[in-house]
Amino acid sequence: MQTHAHTPNAHGHADAERRNLTPWRTEDIDALFALPFNDLIHRAQQVHRAHFDANAVQLSTLLSIKTGGCPEDCAYCPQSARYDTGVEAEKLMPIAEVLEAAQRAKDNGATRFCMGAAWRSPKPHQVDAVGEMVRGVKALGLETCVTLGMLRDGQAEQLREAGLDYYNHNLDTSPEFYGQIITTRTYQDRLDTLARVRDAGLKVCCGGIVGLGESRRERAGLIAQLANMDPYPESVPINNLVQVEGTPLSGNDAVDPFDFVRTIAVARITMPRAMVRLSAGRETMDDALQALCFLAGANSMFYGDKLLVTDNPQAEADRQLLTRLGMRASSEAQLSTCGDDTPCAAH
Ligand code: SAM
Ligand code: DTB
Ligand code: SF4
User: 134 CB under 6 A from ligand 1?
Assistant: First the structure.
């Protein structure tokens, strides 16, 4: 449920294309999850091909600009100060180091640079400092994304003026299951930040995590929340829980890999024009499983040897994987549709 009225912004037309005019009911999404695997993947491929070039993938590189020492209690997170995970609290990274990392990401072929900070919510001087980083990264010719926690009034606008393209803020799971994972901020707090981001004219990057211990119905509940945002997010990261020793969720049962692929497929079907990102958790996936994720409609991934504090596959291995699959890296702008219903692959 969103409490903020959406004011028109600079992206009015594109926003209209990401409206599900009939809201998705959780039971209908649950029914998608229950389809035979081959039927579900077939549907997802059809939707994917109607809106995107099915052989292109967008590459985003992450950097943790402020690591560890976070006051929040997110049960999955290695950066929470409440859990003994071996991650040391650090200060905000100097801007020169951030820009060096961004240049390396660009040289390696990334088109978006995402900066993450282990904050509950940024203080005014911290938004000033991150704004300078955004300005610098943008000047290198990269798309910019930041994830800084909850935003107060005016902060999203300040970031947009600095040149920010995307703000990442995940719902993580369904409203019903959420309280078992995080107690230090509410689901509504998250929706409020997302509304501020949208109203400021920023693009929204919002997704969740599979493997927290949620049921299939709760997984469907997360997708319903995302798909019924009006408009739904431009960018939807689907993370597979990275289990980090010391966090309460370390030792969880691993997700059936096919259920992870199903989640990608259901996100693709319910949010046809979104970039669906194959996000955290690729270290424990083999090449065949990742290929299935692309087949199910993933068209973006995190690229670079590290996520925030945990490992991601080596960039060279990813380049080889894409080559073996006959896929190529592409920016989101090149990937998205032309505004009508003609598949872009035909152009
Ligand atoms: N501190 C800010 C916040 O939480 O709003 C931004 C950074 S936080 C690390 C960004 C997202 O990373 C989380 O919302 C969660 O979805 C994802 N994440 C964190 N730890 C993870 C893990 N161990 N496995 C998978 N995803 C994780
Ligand atoms: C998102 O959905 N996943 C990224 C990004 N947004 C910020 C973070 C994944 C973190 C995985 C564990 C870690 O390295 O901290
Ligand atoms: Fe802090 Fe973000 Fe980790 Fe939660 S997910 S503990 S808010 S860094």
Answer: no
